[in-house]
Amino acid sequence: MRNGAAPNVVAVVGDADGLRYTGAAGAQGPGMPQAVDGDTVYRIMSMTKMVVTVAALQLMEQGKLNLNAPVADYYPDFAQRKVLTGFDGDRPLLRAPTRQVTVQQLITHTAGLSYSFFNQDLLKWEQVTNYVGILSGETELLQSPLMFDPGDRFEYGLNIDVLAVVISNITGKKLDVHLADAILKPLGMRSTSYHKRDVDESKITPIQARGPDGKWVDTGVDYAQNPALIPGGHGLYSTPNDYLRFLRVLLRGGELDGARILQQKTVDAAFSNQIGALEFPPTISTANPTLTCDFSAGPGL
Which of 41, 62, 75, 274 is the most exposed place for a label (fewest CB within 10 A)? Predict the structure, then answer.
């Protein structure tokens, strides 16, 4: 913190048996006297993705979700998605994909979806179509085109937002309600929610950026409040201590403090290479690793 490289940072380290280290430095926000700690609330952005993925794996275990099935089986509108091939001036050129997107391709980011901060063609598409943006909270954010044929390659993108719709359509619940019932409450993650009202707002650290004078300032950037679409790729507020509980349940093979949210074989498979795998889950055994979780005030997705 002394050289100003970040406005604040909290680092927690844990293993299957518990918390092993907590380190923190910096103020909660510009002009705020309180220092950050393991109970500071962050917008955890893409760390939301793994929680939503676990919810999908739970449905797989229950026989309600076939990972090898087309996404359109659970989300019919998704069958209309096309591949962006280029532009005629500012007119996007689109074609039908050569194959349907599967649920597993969403989970492994091989479906063809991307983010515009990684893909210049998608950025241009967003600009010429006045795309609502991924933080808008609008259902139109799911209208983003495919950037390549499903299964052709890996590209990080909007996949888990689509997976969230699959989950909601299967369960008949809004994603925030289902995650709370299936994961957050069983694990005692009391400071994790899609809603500010459910966390200690006095502990929320703002998303910050450098101002003209080089000092850190509150950008005012936040998730959409009361969104029409509960996103799967971002959206959760959480604390380092809360999120470590989620990491520990994975280190423990799906169980924590008597609450089992996944089977051991599913966790083993989730931590194996799934890109190009023909079946899920394969028979895999893993060692007992240690996970490190770093939180900072940066907004990166």
Answer: 62
Nearest to 94 by CA among 104, 83, 105, 107: 83
Helix (H) or strand (E) holding 14: strand 8-15
Q: How many Cβ atoms sit within 10 Å of the Cβ of residue 283?
A: 8
Burial class (CB in 10 A: 0-12, 13-18, 19+), 142: buried
Residue 21 has pLDDT above 70, yes or no: yes
For helices 240-251 and 48-61, give the axis angle rounded to 10 degrees. Answer: 40
Q: What is the pLDDT of residues 220-279, one digit of tens each?
A: 999 999 999 999 999 999 999 999 999 999 999 999 999 999 999 999 999 998 886 444
Query: For this structure, is 168 an active site residue?
Result: no
| Catalytic hit among 156, 196, 265, 272 | 156
Secondary structure class of 295 (helix, strand, coil): strand
Is 49 a residue of the active site?
A: yes
d(CA 135, CA 231): 9
Query: What single DSSP character describes residue 259?
Result: E
Q: Which of 46, 82, 124, 265 is catalytic?
A: 46
First to last CA, the chain: 22
Catalytic residue among 49, 115, 131, 243: 49
Mean pLDDT of 82-105: 97
Which of 48, 46, 47, 96 is closest to 72 using CA atoms? 96
